[in-house]
Write a structure and sequence with these properties.
The protein is α+β, with helices and mostly antiparallel strands. It folds into two domains: about 35 residues, no CATH class; about 260 residues, Alpha-Beta Complex (Creatine Amidinohydrolase). The protein is about 35% helix and about 20% strand. The chain contains seven helices and twelve strands. Strand 1, helix 1 and strand 2 form a beta-alpha-beta unit. The longest helix is centred in the middle third of the chain and has 27 residues. The radius of gyration is 21 Å and the shape is globular.
Length: about 300
């Protein structure tokens, strides 16, 4: 019997070739089985992901500690990588993210050789791995030497995203404990932003569908990658309950641009997010990454 899984590149004609060798009944599409096996995690896998989360927190704190105007994005990434490797992370689920000012529009862009300016929005993200198992923590901050220098406008958007994250986590816990359809958690996030649309429209002086500025589903599966494609992500079509023992990235974000680089929807704001790694152990949910949701006070603090 031949099993076809997503890890295999299947050239044109190979299915027919295998069917000739094994018969049509001997060639099985194992994608669903493969995804299901990866989705549920063993105790050892959960422990390794928790270990990776300890490393992720240290990497994030290192970047926050050295973040100051004039530093290069690559300098911050270098500190994060050094800390990660010193603590035992052999690889990363994605290239270390440091995106200042309009580079935030990339949503997931890696650090580049460009300086961070005073007052910039800065997006930071790390995804260290332990034996191939991935954690993730991402945050948005402002490049100032004191939290009091964060502008009223900047604080408004940060507070909105942090409020959305609180809703997402609360509903994830509710869905986990009560065995509810997972879609209710994503619906709560959509409803949160939709409920802010009138306020934001009045603020910027034009109508905006704020729920559409939520750039992606807020809760996705992970494990041996930071985001395991689409299987296990919570969408409005996720009618089944969550898995029993799984790891989830709760990634709540808002973007200020549309589908094009210069399509400005929310003036003065490009992108902000909070992302943590959650472990679900039956009905119990633990946030495995421990840095605060709001890390602005850690900027420039060793």
């Amino acid at each position: 019997m031949a099993l076809l899984t997503p890890r295999q590149v299947i050239p044109a004609g190979i299915v027919e070739y295998l069917e000739n060798l094994f018969g049509k009944e001997g060639v099985v599409d194992a994608q669903e089985l493969y995804y299901t096996v990866k989705y549920e995690k063993s105790d050892i896998e959960m422990r390794l992901i928790a270990d990776a989360c300890v490393i992720a927190d240290a990497m994030m704190r290192a970047m926050l500690a050295v973040l100051r105007p004039g530093r290069l994005e690559t300098e911050l990434a270098a500190w994060a990588q050094f800390v990660g490797r010193m603590l035992g992370s052999e690889s990363d689920g994605f290239k270390i993210i440091v995106g200042a000012n309009e580079a935030n529009r990339t949503l997931i862009g890696p650090a580049l050789n460009r300086p961070i300016q005073e007052g910039d929005w800065v997006h930071l993200g790390v995804a260290p791995q332990r034996d191939g198992l991935t954690s993730c923590v991402r945050r948005s901050v402002i490049a100032v030497d004191d939290p009091s220098k964060v502008t009223t406008e900047q604080k408004y958007w940060l507070d909105m995203v942090e409020g959305a994250y609180a809703v997402g986590e609360a509903w994830y816990r509710k869905v986990a404990v009560e065995g509810l359809p997972a879609r209710l958690q994503e619906q709560a996030l959509v409803d949160y932003f939709a409920g802010k649309a009138a306020e934001v429209s009045a603020r910027i002086g034009k109508p905006v569908d704020l729920a559409r500025q939520k750039p992606y589903t807020g809760t996705h599966n992970a494990g041996y990658t930071e985001c395991q494609e689409f299987y296990g992500a919570i969408t409005l079509d996720s009618h089944e309950p969550l898995g029993h023992q799984i790891v989830t990235m709760l990634d709540v974000a808002l973007r200020g641009v549309g589908d094009y680089w210069d399509d400005i929807v929310l003036p003065g704001f490009d992108y902000a997010l909070v992302e943590n790694t959650l472990g679900k152990y039956g009905p119990r949910v633990e946030v495995l990454t421990k840095v605060p949701v709001n890390v602005q006070a850690l900027v420039g603090r060793a």
